[in-house]
Each structure stands twice: as C-alpha cells, then as structure tokens.
Amino acid sequence: MAEQPVIEAVGVSRRYATTAALREAHLIVREGEIVGIYGASGSGKSTLLRLLAAIEPPDTGEVLLGGAPAWVRRYGMRHRRPPRPGYVMPIFQNPFSSLDVRWPIWRSVTEPVAIIRRASGAERRALAGERLAAVGLSGLDLEATPSELSIGQCQRVAIARALAAAPAAVVADEPTSALDVTTVAGILRLFKQVAAGGTALVLVSHDENMLRVLCDRVRPMKAGVLEPGGC
Ligand SMILES: Nc1ncnc2c1ncn2[C@@H]1O[C@H](COP(=O)(O)OP(=O)(O)OP(=O)(O)O)[C@@H](O)[C@H]1O
Ligand SMILES: [Mg+2]
C-alpha cells in the first residue's frame, strides 16, 4: 500500500501587495519521503514552506495536513487546525527565528516535547543533551542562550528542536546553509534516518546537486511557480 500523504498543497497561491510570491502550487508529500525544492532567490521557496507548515494560510487553494484542511473558517476568520501540536515542524531560513532568544537552549530544544506531555526540568535537560548530540553538539552548554552561540550552532539547535518530538513532517528552509561540509554530511545522514522512520521532509536548498543525491524527488521553483520535477 502507498504511504499516506502527510502534507498536500492543492493549488495554493500567495500574494504580498503587488508580488505574486506563489502561483497555484500543487505538492503531495508522503510518509518517509524527502522532497527537495530549489530555485533562485525570491522565487517563492520560503513562502511555499510557510504555507506547508500552516504558519500562514494561502490566499486561494488549500493545504491539507494528514488529509484534513490545515485552516478552517469560523465567523469569517481562519483558524489553524493541525492534526496535533507539532505535526509539522518548521526550520526557518534565519536560524535565530526558530529559537526564543530569552530561553536556554535545553528549553527551546525540548519545548515541542513539553507541549505534548509533562516532563521535569531534569528530564528535559537530559533529552536536550541527547538531541544535541545527534546534531554534533554534545559539548554545548545547555544553559546558553542563542546569542551565545555561533550561527551554525543555532542552526543545529533549530534542527534538534524540529526533530525532538517525532513530527509527522519537517519543512526545512536551507537548514545547512551555515555548516561546514563534514557537519552537513552528518545532518544529511540524520535526515535520512528520520525519513526512514516515517517522517516526511521538505528541504529547500540552493545546492541542487545535494538535493538530487538526498531526495526522493526534486522540484524547481521559478518566479512563484513550483515546476514539475525532473525525477
Ligand atoms: N512578508 C512579505 N511581505 C512582502 N513580500 C514578501 C514577503 N515574503 C516574501 N515576499 C516576497 O515574495 C517573493 C518570494 O519570497 P520568498 O522569501 O518566498 O523567496 P525565496 O525563494 O525563499 O528566496 P531566498 O532564496 O532569497 O530565500 C519575493 O519577491 C519577496 O519579496
Ligand atoms: Mg527563502
């Protein structure tokens, strides 16, 4: 049997003032699949990811999460309705945007876990240590705040956070842009493992070659249009 769709974008469009950032995009991402998106700066990649993560609603079209609409209308307002908290976890293009600047990193990394179950501070610190080790940050001071870290360290903390609570999907916007090649290789191995466990991944990168090696499918974006993939 085919794997279930985790995220579906059905003809989604998004406009900002005079800019058509995204035009009628269609995409289905299934359990365990890794889909890569590449394209020139300003082509709409981050916009597409914000819609897939239901951070903002499309102007037209629909995003389905786990087969159900991500947004419902009530009293003329749109309300976000993910199947469960943390169903889709975003990794933002700016590594600091994924983290609360006031919080120690153990708290940011384990917040997705704390939202779905009770966990003591000691348990959360132990879990944060494990999650950070998986992204190559085993020696990091758990009490540090984001401003005390390098950009590449923040990027890996954001990855650890996104993966902490077994999300159904991760949408990652250039998640390895600040990392050296050896560290990138470790993170890509981790993404493969996570996908093998059933999580769906959508990865945006300017590195088309890397995407072609890592991903099951690769889709180019041009001027707001998500084009059919070559594979
Ligand atoms: N919040 C916003 N307000 C106004 N315009 C926006 C907003 N977000 C995106 N845009 C516009 O939408 C278009 C697509 O932007 P987007 O950030 O999605 O591109 P991108 O492909 O992620 O680019 P990059 O590779 O530089 O990150 C751009 O023309 C941008 O100026
Ligand atoms: Mg972007």
Q: What series of H and E elements makes up the topology?
A: EEEHEEEEEHHHEHEHEE
Oligomer: single chain
Beta-strand content: 25-35%
Measured as a percent range, the helix fraction is 25-40%
Heterogens: adenosine-5'-triphosphate, magnesium ion
Question: Which sequence of strands runs across the widest sheet?
Answer: 8-9-10-3-11-12
Largest sheet: 6 strands, mixed
State mean pLDDT (0 to 100 scale).
95
Query: Globular, elongated, flat, extended or rod-shaped: what is the shape?
Result: globular
Distance between the termini: 21 Å
Give the total of beta strands.
12
Question: Topology, please?
Answer:
Layout: E1 5-16, E2 19-30, E3 34-39, H1 45-52, E4 60-65, E5 68-69, E6 71-74, E7 77-80, E8 88-91, H2 105-116, H3 121-134, H4 151-163, E9 169-173, H5 181-196, E10 200-204, H6 208-214, E11 217-222, E12 225-226
Parallel strand pairs: 3-10, 3-11, 8-9, 9-10
Antiparallel strand pairs: 1-2, 1-4, 4-5, 6-7, 11-12
Residues 45-46, 93, 173 line the site of magnesium ion.
Family: Belongs to the ABC transporter superfamily.
Domain ABC transporter: 7-230
Protein name: ABC transporter ATP-binding protein
List keywords for this structure.
231 residues, 4-stranded antiparallel sheet, 6-stranded mixed sheet, binds magnesium ion, 12 strands, 29% strand, alpha/beta, binds adenosine-5'-triphosphate, 6 helices
Structure description:
One of its GO terms (biological process) is transmembrane transport. This is ABC transporter ATP-binding protein. This protein is an alpha/beta fold and 231 residues long. The chain has six helices and twelve strands. The chain has helices spanning 45-52, 105-116, 121-134, 151-163, 181-196, 208-214; strands at 5-16, 19-30, 34-39, 60-65, 68-69, 71-74, 77-80, 88-91, 169-173, 200-204, 217-222, 225-226. The strands form three sheets. It has a six-stranded mixed beta sheet with strand order 8-9-10-3-11-12, with helices on both faces. A hairpin with a 2-residue loop joins β6 (71-74) and β7. Magnesium ion (MG) binds at residues 45-46, 93, 173.
